[in-house]
Structure prediction request, 250 residues.
Amino acid sequence: MKALISDIHGNLEALKAVMVDIDAHHVEQIYFLGDVVGYGPEPEECIDIVEKRCCVHLMGNHDYAMLNAPVGFNPIAAGAIECLKARMEPGVYSMPWKHRRWEYLGNLKNRHMENDLLFIHASPRDPISEYILPSDPFYDPEKIDSIFQRVEHVAFVGHTHIPGVFTTEPTFLVVQDIDYTFTLAQEKVVVNIGSVGQPRDMDPRACYVLLDDNQITWRRIEYDIEKTVESIRKVTCLHDRNAERLREGR
Ligand SMILES: [Fe+2]
Prediction:
């Protein structure tokens, strides 16, 4: 069995709770689909855990923005990148672990392919940045069609922080509550695995996926949100909104 995690965004409490749940299952491999940094207060510790525990490491748009610049980000997201970049970017005399974490970000891959399964952060058309929105099947079916032309069988993504399944119909199946399952068949699908550190589907619990052969299970995990809220408030250059939204799951 594999565990797929994405969009941790420096939320150490959420990541730790997810790892406890992963360890309670028979998980052999953990794949990380991007965005270990951004928004949240403890990206360094999150990098250390992901680097140690995962065997696939993908680049998210926030990881990319940290290394380069937060182009096209809203002011709060861009502010969080600038705030944490000032803390994380190593200089000539920085401690070795600071260099190692920065190199970790720089070594993240754009995509991972395994047989007919594609793993990316965002979209098969643009692996780092394009949002595949739950509304797209209804308002922009051509976009969904174009995306599916680049999917051999299954694409696993994160990025929107909204768990669910896109089908070629086209439609979007919403993940409802803990242990929602979907069985992979012949049909092409794009599977959004949800977000560990900043869920946006109005359910504040951390989200990740267990993949057991053809069976996908979304897990929802309670964690100490108030502890993360406190940690965000201690980092004065992080906007308060980054904390409040965690309580609401949006
Ligand atoms: Fe994200």
Observations:
- The mean pLDDT is 97.
- Residues 162 and 194 are 5 Å apart (CA to CA).
- The two ends are 29 Å apart (CA to CA).
- Residues 75-88 form the longest helix (14 residues).
